[in-house]
Amino acid sequence: GKKSLRQKAVDELKHYYNGFHLLWTDTKVAARMVWRLLHGQVLTRRERRRLLRTCADLFRLVPFLVFVIVPFMEFLLPVFLKLFPEMLPSTFETESKKEEKLKKKLNAKLELAKFLRETIAEMAKRNRADTG
Fold it and tell me: What pLDDT, on the 0 to 100 scale, is given for residue 84?
């Protein structure tokens, strides 16, 4: 059914608490990775991607904190998220946003595959015409 305003506010607070908790955990893991890098160890591809994502999330956190610190600016947060959808750190994304992003990537890949298939078919027609 429909949630009350209080329940919506509690859900949002839980969402942001979990987001900050995940970001803190990622930051601790990234700090260990940086420590390993400074001591000459090599990171795996997965570790390197996680380190880059965490660093990007920390840089995205700076403008996000402005909305939290400045009074009544949190009411403008939805407007800025609509204008700049990548502004929030990845730990604050909801499942629906993640699915939407995956769908967009999949559609882009399908369009690229369709374009490449059509291009190859056109090249095959030209080659047949030239040789036959």
Answer: 82
- The total of structural domains in the chain comes to 3
**Residues of the chain with confidence (pLDDT) below 70:** 132
What DSSP string runs through the chain? -PPPHHHHHHHHHHHHHHHHHHHHHHHHHHHHHHHHHHTTPPPPHHHHHHHHHHHHHHHHHHHHHHHHHSTTGGGGHHHHHHH-TT-S-GGG--HHHHHHHHHHHHHHHHHHHHHHHHHHHHHHHHHHHHH-
Q: Are 37 and 50 part of one and the same domain?
A: no
Q: What is residue 61's predicted lDDT score, i.e. its pLDDT?
A: 85
* 36 and 62 co-located in one domain: no
27 plus 52 within the same structural domain: no
Segments forming the whole domain that contains residue 6: 1-41
